[in-house]
TrEMBL record:
Name of the protein this chain belongs to: Class B acid phosphatase
Origin species: Streptobacillus felis
Location (main, coarse): periplasm
Family of this protein: Belongs to the class B bacterial acid phosphatase family.
Record GO cellular component, one term: outer membrane-bounded periplasmic space
Complex and partners: Homotetramer.
Cofactor: Mg(2+)
Amino acid sequence: MKKTLLLMTILSATSLFAAGPKVPYTHEGFYSTDKVQKPVHFVSVEQIEKSLEGTGPINVSFDIDDTLLASSGYFRYGIDYFGIPDHPKGKFSYLYNQKFWDYVAEMGDEHSIPKESAQALINMHLKRGDKIFFITGRTKHSKDENYTSTKLSKTLQRFFNLPYEVYVNYTGDTPTGGFKYDKSFYINKHNVSIHYGDSDDDILAARELGIRGIRVQRSYNSTNPQKMNGGYGEEVLINSAW
């Protein structure tokens, strides 16, 4: 019974991490935690690079949580210490507490773990001369301006050995500019050609703009519910859960 209740609680949280319209999966995919993986359109970093041969430098964007970083520790901490009493979202009420987002911003993800797959992607794009952008569904610090130098942008520069500081675009999980998905406005603003992300909304935002969206597998131990890799027939970066 306890396991059933826990599963129901986890499933009820799925809407908290995606603001755009829900779209049914159209292809057979797999969850990162499945014991048997299904045949989907896997791609490697080398294959992505080869597909770009003959193409000049492009703009590429990355989601942050579970795409660049294994950052679930902060969100698990938020459940215990930033919950809002009697909030309708229950244990996930912390996501609606600005103090939680201020805390995360002030920590600057120094205790998150950078994913090896993200490093490989970034290295490849830097070698090509591509320009990198970071777009997150997080809410920015109450005292910060969007797309400016922050502790997080400095941490990401250090984690991924970036030659320059990449400012972070915060969407606040809220669509804007007449788009359906929260990252679409920023992907469009920066004229991005490829967007990488672990969520359904990452893939659907790319499709809303008619660009290439590549799924990065969500970390195995993520507190964010697993999504179906390849569920929309999209390319999935192989071995990208870590």
